[in-house]
Amino acid sequence: MTHHLDGNVLAGALSEVFRADVTSARARCGGCGRMAMIAEAVVYTDAPGLVARCGGCDQVLATIVDAGDRLILSLAGLSAVELRR
Length: 85
Ligand SMILES: [Zn+2]
Hints:
Blueprint: H1 11-19, E1 26-29, E2 35-37, E3 42-47, E4 49-53, E5 60-66, E6 71-74, E7 78-82
Antiparallel strand pairs: 1-2, 1-7, 3-4, 4-5, 5-6
């Protein structure tokens, strides 16, 4: 039997992630596997939002769109993010 909880159990861990300065975090590109600080990403600001690309293979790592009353974040191009405590 599989035991599971709903997403509310993530609240504590995610609040720790989203309050940290993520520019000093290290992240792994889902395309080439390169591990680098997020601050080393190549960021384009002339899109409808911010687009961060891998400095190794140019894959889109993350997008951030300011939609007024919402902030839409995608980290779909990252396979891992490593934060220091
Ligand atoms: Zn890459």
